[in-house]
Amino acid sequence: MHRLATLDDLQAVYALYMHEEVVPYLGHDPMPLAEFRAIMDELVASRSFYVVERDGQVRGFYRLSRHAGRARHGAYLGTFAVAPSERGTGLAASIIGDVVSRLRRDGVRRLELMLEADNPRALRFYEKQGFEFEGRLRNAYRRSDQDHDVDELLMARLL
């Protein structure tokens, strides 16, 4: 079940976001719960951040934003993660399928996302979901525990 996140989801979202296999590929470095609260406040306030529940537990999340103006036919998928224990279960593919179906109903014709170039698992996954490479932002990203920059890849799927 996809639903807009609420502040009641703080603990579950924090636990997944800060998981050692997830946090390297999201937009913030590891931090204490008290600091993460401000990030969660922003995500909830955006009214574009969704949690995905399976068996009554948050097992994934994503942010889905429509572009404005002349780009209104497009949307951006970000802050997308599923619990590592869900790998291979089809949950991530199901989320993408549900998002695409909803966007098509709303007249969206383009879905974009960014991912780190050092995340080959995600790259393969998105390619299987029909996303295509469109560009590279060189030296776009740096994790606090690394001394080098990471490129970000722009991918898109035409709906």
UniProtKB/TrEMBL annotation:
One of its GO terms (molecular function) is acyltransferase activity, transferring groups other than amino-acyl groups. The keyword Acyltransferase applies. Residues 1-159 form the N-acetyltransferase domain. CDD domains: NAT_SF. Coiled coil: none annotated. Keywords: Acyltransferase, Transferase. It holds the Pfam family Acetyltransf_1. PANTHER family: AMINOALKYLPHOSPHONATE N-ACETYLTRANSFERASE-RELATED-RELATED. This is N-acetyltransferase. It comes from Hylemonella gracilis.
